[in-house]
Amino acid sequence: MSKTTDKKVKDKGAVNPALNSAGKTPVETDDFTAVLGRAHEGVLIADAQGHLLHTDNGFSDLSGYPPETLSQLQLNNLFNSPDIKKLTAKVENRKSSRGWEANLLRNDGIRVQVEVASSSFQWKGESCILVKVNERSRDTHTEGEQNEQEKLFTTLFQSSPVAKSILTKDDYKILDVNEACSQLFGYTRAELIGRSSADLNLWNMPAERQSVLNELLETDQLRPREKMINTRSGETRIVSVSMEAVLWKGKACLLTSVFDITTQKHYEFERDTALEFLRMMNASKDTGELIHQTTEYIQRISGCEAVGIRLERDQDFPYYETRGFPAEHIYKENSLCRRKPDGTLVRNDSGMPMLDCLCGHVILGGFDPAHPCITKKGSFWSNCQSELHISSADKVQPLQIRNCCNCEGYESVALIPLRVGDKALGLIQLNDKRKGHFNPQIIAMWERLADYLALSLSRFAVEDAHRESEEKLKMLIEYAPVALAMFDKSMRYVAVSGRWITDYHLDDQELIGRSHYEVFPEINEDIKAIHRRGLEGESLEDSSVKFERLDGSIQWISWAMRPWHRADGSIGGIVIFSEDITALKESEQSALESERQMTALLTSLDDIVFEFDEQGKYLNIWSADESKLAQPREKLLGRTMKEMLGDENGGRFTEAIRRVILQGRIETIEYPLETLSGMHWFLARISPIREKDGSHRTASMLVRDITDRKEAEFEIENQVKQLQALHTIDLAISSSVDMQTNLQILLGFVTNLVGVDAADVMVAEVNLSMFVYTAGVGFRTPDAVNARVPFGKSLVGEAAQQRRNIKFIGTDPSRLDPAFAAMWMHEGFMSYVGIPLYVMGELKGVLEIYQRSPLDLDAKTEEFLNILAGQAAIVIDSAQKLDTLHQSNLDLSLAYEATIEGWSAALDLRDRETEGHTLRVTDMTMRMAAAAGVPKSDLKHIRHGALLHDIGKLGVPDSVLHKPGPLDEEEWAQMRQHPLFAYQLLAPIQYLRQALDIPRYHHERWDGSGYPEGLKGKAIPLAARLFAIIDVYDALTSDRPYRQAWSSKQALDHIRAGAGTHFDPELVEVFMKFMASEKL
Fold first, then answer.
1. What tens digit of pLDDT does each residue of 323-361 get?
2. pTM (2 decimals)?
3. Comparing C-alpha atoms, which of 191, 175, 202, 193 is closest to residue 258?
4. Pair 69, 280: CB distance under 8 Å
5. Strand ranges, E, within 110-250
């Protein structure tokens, strides 16, 4: 089978980022053939617009165009206009032709006579033509024809959208270029002509140039090859290069075609990267697996020497996993929390730990996005960190910066925050010691991938439900059929409907997050005052307000405003419903001039028009649909509104009519009314009728059926209540893990918003193979509270087993098991709905709905119940997972404590002279620390440090430790090393990291004469200073082989004498008070 220009013609509907504007795939090269004048026969297929769909090798040889180029051409590139009209006429008339003469314009600019035969046919659902072309003559062209052909060749060459150049075959100097070539490389035509690609350093990898030249020497052509080229600006582009031998101005030359595929390649790279990223996220079962795979993948595709991912934990953001960073860097940089000299955390006014370093401030979003190193999404990146540190570090970050990355030689640094909404989850860190590793496109790609990762991480968090509810709220408002907008307390847009955007002509503006007063600067102080009243809790409305726009136009608005509340009951902002009634106002004003002449028109409208006198008597009625009247027309005329509607409603309308006639102004009233066709809502606009003398003796009332609008408003209000309920439940889930409390909140919304009598949640206890009542509302007897139903039994078991909503209506309990039937009868229930609760395919329980009357749920209510059921499943799942986590943490903590106490006991066994010393000083230290006001959260670490204070003696030889006589200098040097031995032994253990102060520093002295580091004053950690006093006291009051124990008074006098030299004088006073209280 012969080759085609596009291999296979693509389906027209296919989406391909590489398609050009004509819908065809661009080739990577469009070679010009150098072989001319041979007799050929060829075939082509074209559509009705003249696009080439298929050519064979014969036509490629005949025309001098390679197949890749032909796929970009049309018939008007090959034939003149009269010939094209003949060809396309065959398609329109669906006729065939035997043969006729035409002129074919070849790639080399020569026009040759050919014989053309064509026929029309259907191909892939389109009308096409099949053209057979035969060369008629091989006569040598005259000099004039040759000149004409060269002109045509030049025209094609210069107008080609592909970068083309003509080179000499001996030294590959440039003879000519087209405009596309100049634009691609950034040089003018004059700068390019006479120079070679080597002269201009166009090859990104110069060695590739020689391989291209070698191929040209062997084959006299270069088929399309992907290469890297340099532009004048220094930018590297990916291109497809091809070369063909041609005759140009009588000389053998090379025609070079260069097609820029950089954008396509970048798209392919980012697409493949994103797909692999998403594949890993979807395949990962938990955070650990996801982060492990992500870190490895980021390092592999980024080429960075070191990468790491930080995630939030205990109000800090330590590394979760790293690759390539040295261990010392991880140890020093792991925590981002700022600490005081004594090691305690520095907290802000809100009690939150303050974060240091670039990482901390990127996570907190503390940078100005206007800075060149900061992106709009808050990422930091630099290609030369050392220069940034020298020149502008203070401007970039006025807070504390560690600059460890700079000190370790990392030049290229990128910090990409992981966020979901405003919540900071952590960041991705990429470091490399080479300069220039990043560019804005790469950073933007990492930011997009970071968004994917953040979303995936949030999948493992309970807060996911909260975010889903907010999205549902925004979606509801966006697609609301009325003009609706939701604002926060600062009057910034939270959500907005499409109707709002249309009514106020805001199609070209981004509203979310912007101030309402910025969008509408013409809003005056009176309207702002109304907004403030709404924000304080008032529900307000006005049926007609004149709104003057900045462009001078007038808009009449009917509006209603309601506050919305947060879960804690506080006002979160306001919701405004509005309707543009400008057209109605204009029609009312014009009606003042021609009311009595509009009878025919009024009766053709859907509205109802009445005429009343001052007593409210029906004078005239115009209505195209009398079924909307409360009574037939003939029963109304001559009667008053009080007679027909009663004293209350009729009196209200009569008083309004009197005010309108007396004051000469329009009033509007909304009201429900039972009509001949059922209950309807109406909007009545009462207007005075001006008589010829200018007086008002009667009034017209235009009544519009607004039933659809009111139902839509009621639906929106109901949906807003439902979404507020979901929002409240989300906040409860995210702020509390108490399952019963959260379920009680949820069930309260079930009964209030759905309007059912009772509801409960039966939790599936797998270990018991039973459903157990956990929370409920609305029950009158204790039967439901004590319910325990085996799996597979009763309606609850049926709902769980069938994984669908189960409904039951009736008073006959024969279908029910005895226990459930008894409760059913005692409570007087008639209707039941059971909704199974599943999370990730795992059964969590059943939500049960009860009604003491027949219950008919519409589709929207049942959908809302299903959403609440999903929330209930999340509540149960979160509580169960937290219980499992608490138990695991407790088991681990007990294991640690047993290990530490075991170590302490082993130390006492080794040094029998001090047996019991460790437990005594530990007990006394804990009591004194508590008396000194040490926070409870630090007491655990002080206890660990006290128990292990002499652990370093494991490194002291027994000959020194148990020597009966005095130690010599060398032996004392060994003994003084035991605090360092303790630090080296315990530092690698993360659990004991905060307990190191006592083992390492308890032999330091206040005046700096202690060991091992000679620290002085408050440079010695508080725990070590406190313990030193108790350690000495216990040693003095304990028997030793070389002396008897001192009395407590003697020991206290000794410690008091050492205040300011050996001991912290302030802590000595605390110790004395402590000892005095102990005696009491």
1. 999 988 888 888 888 888 887 888 888 778 888 888 888
2. 0.33
3. 202
4. no
5. 111-123, 126-135, 163-168, 174-177, 221-230, 236-248
